[in-house]
Design a protein that fits this description.
Layout (H helix, E strand, L loop, with lengths): L17 H23 L5 H35 L8 H23 L6 H24 L4 H20 L2 H9 L1 H17 L2 H9 L16 H32 L1
Helix pairs in contact: 1-2, 1-9, 2-3, 2-9, 3-4, 4-5, 6-7, 7-9, 8-9
The structure holds retinal.
């Protein structure tokens, strides 16, 4: 890891560093979203307070990691020019391994009204950890076998999709009905479409020598793809949970 990080200095960015700019905007957006979730938390009853708290934790953890990732990227660009920008892969995956399991907790929290068990929550968490550890392995450790590790990671991803779209979680959501069911269906769309952005970033970043080597020539930096994915998924996911809390709070009051 670059020692630019460890000095505690704030690394300025070049004005034409558009990848760095997406780290910067990502950091601001995550901070703003965290303030929004934390400040609105107390206007909901207990049942929803925890869910909104978790939404805020997801964006807050990301904000802190984006602060470091921006600095890491800017430091590598300062040292090696725009072509020498280095991906903050380690921080990226530390962030994901904390925030993605929290998103699994969100599924559990909203389905608790229908009798969701901790067992379901742990299955989702375990699958997400397998997905991320194997992805990290392919991206940072065994890059020659990136396609293989990406494939294993993808299988874990599809298992998560299966559980929430057709399996146990879907049954519970159907049982709960109403605004819980529509929120669940919305979160499923985030996982199915929003999370599918990440394998594209992975293919861009690990294209060298793989069957998908053409992905290396599309001219978009892997980090931009990951940063867009994070903004959509972390903030969007939180807003779905927020809307559910609003919908069911106003219904209770009426
Ligand atoms: C807030 C961060 C989120 C929601 C991150 C999600 C990450 C993924 C869904 C990553 C998935 C991957 C694959 C399905 C295959 C290739 C390797 C990964 C780890 C990029």
């Amino acid at each position: 890891m670059s020692n630019v990080l460890l000095t505690g200095d704030f690394q300025a960015m070049l004005p034409n560093d558009y990848v760095g700019f997406t780290f910067f905007v990502g950091c601001m957006a995550m901070m703003a979203a965290s303030a929004f979730f934390f400040l609105s938390m107390n206007s909901f009853d207990r049942k929803w307070k925890t869910s909104i708290l978790v939404s805020g934790l997801i964006t807050f953890i990301a904000a802190v990691h984006y602060y470091y990732m921006r600095d890491y990227w800017a430091g590598s660009v300062a040292a090696g020019g725009l072509e020498g920008g280095e991906s903050p892969t380690f921080f990226r995956y530390v962030d994901w391994v904390l925030t993605v399991p929290l998103m699994c907790v969100e599924f559990y929290l909203i389905l608790k009204v229908a009798g969701a068990t901790k067992n379901l929550m742990w299955k989702l968490i375990a699958a997400s950890v397998v997905m991320l550890v194997t992805g990290y392995w392919g991206e940072a450790v065994a890059m020659e076998q990136a396609a293989l590790w990406g494939g294993i990671s993808g299988a874990a991803y599809f298992y998560i999709v299966y559980l929430i779209m057709f399996g146990e979680a879907k049954e519970l959501a159907t049982k709960a009905g109403g605004s819980v069911l529509s929120a669940h269906n919305m979160l499923v769309k985030f996982v199915l479409i929003g999370w599918a952005i990440y394998p594209l970033g992975y293919m861009i970043g690990t294209a060298d020598g793989q069957w998908y080597s053409f992905m290396g020539n599309i001219g978009i930096d892997m980090n931009v793809v990951y940063n867009i994915g994070d903004a959509i998924n972390k903030i969007g996911f939180g807003l779905v949970v927020y809307s559910l809390a609003v919908a069911s709070t106003s219904k209770d009051a009426a």
